[in-house]
Amino acid sequence: MIPPAILEKFGATRKILVKTEVLFEEGTDAHFYYQIINGEIKVLNWSEEGKEFIQGIFSDGQGLGEPPLLGRFPYPATAMATMTTEVYKLSYQAMIALLQDNFDIHLKLTHILSNRLQYKAMIMKDMSTQDAEHRIVSMLSYLKKKEGIKGVFEVNLTRQNLADLTGLRVETVIRTIKLMQEQKKLKIKGRKIWFE
């Protein structure tokens, strides 16, 4: 999102995380803006029963942790690397200076945060229904739109990821995906889901 040269100009440092390493933890104070150079980070919460609920999955070029940083409140979720991941790390003061000097980046960040709010509203609405197919279709439609895909969309998530994103049990996701395939609402090729 923010060009690397600009991040480095404002003093961003690089940090490498190994798989399952935590970048920031729920409830801790937000002091940095993070942007992924390469790799993947999932932002998640755990229920009291220990079930993982994924708030978002971020990859190359995407920033994370901005709402608590700019809002000056603790992280509402934990961020964990899903593979070896390299990130830029920029302090709060440097981020504010960067945004003040680069209105175009400030506007782009506002747009991204607005889209995340739209996603959260969609998830909250879908969580209120018990219909597993509706939750899955909503999530796949959102991901397809986010990627800008017009035709058939290859879903690069595991059944477990879909369960964690929709608040469903993995068994329910597997059963529902199979039923949707039988009803020709999606296709499965080599264990990959293809959604139209």
Automatic annotation (TrEMBL):
InterPro entries: cNMP-bd_dom (IPR000595), cNMP-bd_dom_sf (IPR018490), Env_Response_Regulators (IPR050397), HTH_CRP (IPR012318), RmlC-like_jellyroll (IPR014710), WH_DNA-bd_sf (IPR036390). Residues 130-196 form the HTH crp-type domain. This is Crp/Fnr family transcriptional regulator. SUPFAM superfamilies: cAMP-binding domain-like, Winged helix' DNA-binding domain. Keywords: DNA-binding, Transcription, Transcription regulation. Residues 21-116 form the Cyclic nucleotide-binding domain. It comes from Arcicella aquatica. Pfam families: cNMP_binding (PF00027), HTH_Crp_2 (PF13545).
